[in-house]
Amino acid sequence: MAGSSGARTPQRLLLLLLGLIHVASSIFVVRNNSTEASCIMANFSAAFFMNYSTESGLGNATFDLPQNALVLNSSSCGKENASNPSLVIGFGEGHTLTMNFTRTAKSYQVQLLSFTFNLSDGHFFPNASTSSKEMSVESKTDIQADIDKKYRCISSNQITMNNVTVTLSDVTIQAYLSNNNFSKEETRCRQDTPTPKPGPTTHPTAAPLPTPTRPPTPEAPSVSKYNVSGPNGTCLLANMGLQLNITYERKDNTSVRRIFNINPNKTAAHGSCTPQVAVLELNTENSTLIFRFGMNATTSKFFLQGILLNTTLPDAKQPSFEASNDSLKELQATVGNSYKCNAEENVKVTDSFSVNIFRVWVQAFKVEGDKFGSVEECLLDENNMLIPIAVGGALAGLVLIVLIAYLIGRKRSHAGYQTI
Description:
Elements lengths: L3 E8 L13 E8 L5 E17 L2 E8 L5 E2 L14 E6 L3 E9 L3 E12 L15 E6 L4 E3 L3 E4 L3 E5 L2 E12 L10 E3 L35 E7 L2 E17 L5 E7 L6 E6 L3 E7 L3 E10 L4 E12 L7 E6 L4 E5 L3 E4 L3 E6 L2 E12 L10 E3 L1 H36 L6
């Protein structure tokens, strides 16, 4: 086939279940120049998180695929027995996100996702210091669908490529198009498919499964203060104690749930600030825990948007444990105010990982004088306050009823006597 050209139609939408402006979904189209027939269509949101070297040490870059990203002419519909279709999206000063497709008789897939970035672009990588400015990373993916069906995945799909993590959300992709548009039929991703519940055991002699090991829960973690600053000052203040709640399979095939406290004295904290994203990264001896706070410009609210954990579990069947979720909406308050909760909060990240947060007090973005703003109490604290108020009110009402009854009784007893 001849070379291809691209067309892009932006569509603003709210990220699933968030109601926030996170990253806009866009339609990218690759066409054959000679026939103008479309061979690839893709509609998705993409968020990038990566580490890079700066003049002052390790820095973090967090950004979304911008609205002005375009399909580049290097995209191709491929040539039979010679080359495969590819979608190349460009943005900024030389950054490209590429999807390379392959097919079999029954299915097609994004065999390789690659990201090339230019560290000289100060907008995305402020204060970068490296001799090699242009870098590339790549990874295989699980994006696969039947021929003549579109690939559909509402859930977030996180793809890690060395020091870069790309999170794809609300994805619709189809290659090898036959009618210049998305097919009505679709292949859903495994992330969208609920895990089937196990059926009843039918074998009469089958031994019962052992009860999962549940080690004792440690004491509440120590509360520590974290501060993240950027070029424009402090963008995140947080006081909180943290527990990691992880379920995994051990080498002996038994399931275990463990709870680990984050020890502030053995934790290195740093982060990064952008106008709409504040990142707190906590590094322990064998773990990296990242909190990503976002902002809804429409409602002027900040909230905990994403959590990522990388850790090592020596007794696990797969010692390297990773879990993430970039579609959260926790610890929410008005920008300029702070969020506070004395009650323990449990934030579910995945089915196998959650974070227990104790005595949290947090404020993101508009932080003045490195001090917390007006407090917005959590619902759990408000409910806890309602209980003693209700009990007190009931007791006061009971006392009042008894007092009234006593006065009525006393008045009637006086009415039976006459004054001499």
